[in-house]
Structure formats: structure tokens, C-alpha cells
Amino acid sequence: MLTRRKFLHASAATGLTLAAAPRLATPALAQGAKIKLGYVSPQTGPLAGFAESDAWNIQSFLASDLGKNFDVIVKDSQSNPNRAAEVAKELILDDGVNLMLAASTPENTNPVSGVCEGEGLPCITTVAPWQPWFIGQQGNPRDPASWKPFDYAFHYFWGMEDVIEVYTAMWDQLTTNKAVGGLFPNDADGNAWGDPANGLKPGLAAKGYTLTNPGPFQNLSDDFSAQINAFKAANTDIITGVLIPPDFTTFWSQLRQQGLKPKAVTVAKALLFPQSVEALGDAGNNLSSEVWWSPSHPFSSTLTGQSSADLAADFTAKTGRPWTQPIGFVHSLFEVAANVMGRAEDPTDGDAVAEAIAATDMTSVVGKIAWNGAGMPPFAAKNVCKTPLTGGQWRLKDGGGYDLVIVENGAAPEIPTGGKMEPLA
């Protein structure tokens, strides 16, 4: 495959004259040129909640001292993996970006990373568990012996082992029969979480929990009767899964209509956003999910100096909307980009930028980011950095709305809790 980078190298070797950006050791390019960052996110579609803070975050980045050295070119993936790959290629071939950034579930991160790896362009992604990101991009995800590291794609977030630890610690605070029902759609996240060998099932079993998985379903389903009947038959006290927000709203309404009353509902993705919970009215009280960033996180921005609490408050003050978890991680993408490009020997050379990414060692607003292999299996140690994870519950506030209260921090004691796990009414 003739990639963009191979073409450039081959052209140089054969003596062809190509227009090239000047070689510099700092982000301030000669003659007023700026480093180009490509950013692919789901601005529209069912994953748009993940992109809610994008415009605010990018504006804050560009207004910072370091951000003045950059241009950010944003492309909307429309929550579609094929579209994500298409616009990533446009950013590389048409816009000539120097570094690619992406976030917001494997449906967005994986196609972008794949295109960048093929084209030899450095890429940094986040907000997708590392297993569906790394394993999901392998030629044969079910053959670990065939898995290979990437040269240009780097990722930071938590993994399935972390969410199992957090979820079971939350449930252990309640009295239950340890029977869990799982909701896993037919997408990259759902297939990873529901995988019988590498997903939730073996990890839950090791903690004494049984998992009933009725099988995959299509996103934007309108009938969850089969899943609800399976959960009833298994006498499940706990429901978990990884759903897009519209699907959880449909499921939760149908479950309540059919009389199933679990003691805990801990769902990833759909329950990240206050708007999704508020749409449920009082029925959202004590629903729970993993918490990867909050105003309580004891970290500060390397771009603005703001604490996590300051960052969340600034977002609310300027947009009139409540804080959401992606705020911190989208902000951190631009922190990492500025840090990397400030150290790259030549910000216009993909190999130099990839080397700078690999050598990263910084503390961002979401915690420490260093691709040093800490806590990772050897096969993914080069490409994945893990960030801390806690667990939280949505609690109704006096006067309306919800607070996300951290109730479990055993794996990240530096992040304070605000209460204990409570059963659903």
C-alpha cells in the first residue's frame, strides 16, 4: 500500500523536489504558519452528546498561549464510522493536518485511527475503552497471537478490567442476588463488552456475579421485550450494558411498564449525560455509571491552569449547560497535542511526532498521561495509556435536575467520593 508518508520518503530518495514545511524544534512555525490539528467528532447523530463541549473546548484552546500556534480543522463524523474514516482521509490528503485527534466511542475513534495508521499520520484518541479500540482494529480480533501494535495510533482511557472493578465495587455496597442482566448492541462497544471471553462475563464471574446476555441488538431499537423477559427469567437484581442514549430511554420506559424492578442499573455511555437522565424525570434517580472525569477530579489544565472544578464551572457559565464528562477528556486531547508538538523535533514530520507521543509524560486535567505501558498487557503497552476510573450515581436535586455523585473510588483514591451507593426505589 502506497501511503502518503511512503510516497514522501520515496520521492525524497529519488530526488524529486517537493514543497516541504521548514524543520523547527518548537510549535512556532516559520513565516507565521501554524500547526494544523485535525479533529473528528460526532457533531450530529446519536453520539452528539459526546461532542457537546467541542466548540467551547476548541475556543478555549485556541485562546490559550500555546493554542495560538495552532489551527484546528473540525470534521463531523455524523456518528457514522464510514463517515469518520472518510473525513479523516480528507483531513490528511486535502487539509494537510500534522496531527489527528478524535474521541467519543469506538465508532468514531477506530475508523479515524485506522486511516491515520494506513496513511502514516500520527493520531491520538480517547473516550473509548482500550479493548474495543485496540483489539477492534486487529485483523483477527479473536486471535491474540496475530495482534500487532500500531506505529502512529495512540490512545488513552480505561479498560474493561477497570469498569468491572468499579461496577462490582458499587454493587457490593448493596444487598443483591448478584444476578446481572446485560444489554450489548451490535456495535464495537457492545461486541467488546458482551464478548464471552474478553468482555464483562469472565470478570464478573471472578467477582461472584452471573451475567445473562440475551444477545446483540441493533442500535435505535424500539422493542426490548426479549431482553426484559430474559432478565425476568433470570431474576436479575442488576442491569448493566453499554447503550446509546435513545436506546436506554426506550428500554427504561419499557422495563418500568413491564414491572421489572432491579436494585441497580449501571449503564455506560447512555448515562454519562445529565440531559439523558433528566429526560427520564424522577425515574432517573439513583441510576449509575462509570465516572471518568468530574469537577471533583484533583487535576488541572496545562493549557489554562484551571482546576477540574474551574473548567466545569467555566463551561456552565459560558454555555448555560451543566458539565458533562467529555469536557475534561476533549480538553485533555488539546493539552496532549500542545505538549507533543512542543517536543517534536519536527512538527511536520509524522515519524518525529509519533516519537514525541510515545515519550509523553505529563499530568493533564484528566490525570497522568504517559505511554509507558503501566498497567497494560505487553501486546498493547506501546499504544495505550490508562486513566483513572470511579463510579457514580445520579441524584435528584432540590428544585429539579440531577447531580452525579461519586460513590466508588477504590481504584482511584485520590478522587474523593460524595456519598454511598443507594438502591433504586
What does the model show?
The chain is globular and about 65 Å long. It has helices at residues 4-13, 54-63, 81-93, 106-119, 130-134, 160-171, 188-194, 200-206, 225-233, 245-257, 274-278, 308-319, 326-343, 350-358; strands at residues 35-41, 70-76, 99-102, 123-126, 153-156, 179-183, 210-212, 238-243, 264-269, 288-291, 361-364, 367-370, 384-385, 390-396, 402-408. It has 425 residues and is α/β, with parallel strands linked by helices. It is built from 14 helices and 15 strands. Mean pLDDT is 91; it is low at 6-28. 34% of the residues lie in helices and 17% in strands.
CATH topology of the largest domain: Rossmann fold
* Radius of gyration, taken over Cα atoms and rounded to an integer in Å: 22 Å
Structural class, please?
alpha/beta
Give the N-terminus to C-terminus distance in angstroms.
Answer: 58 Å
Sheet having the most strands = 6 strands, parallel
Helix content: 25-40%
Mean pLDDT comes to 91
Q: Helical element count?
A: 14
Beta-strand portion reads: 15-25%
How are the strands ordered across the major sheet?
Answer: 2-1-3-4-5-13
Could you list the spans in which at least 5 consecutive residues all have pLDDT below 50? 6-28
What is the total tally of β strands? 15
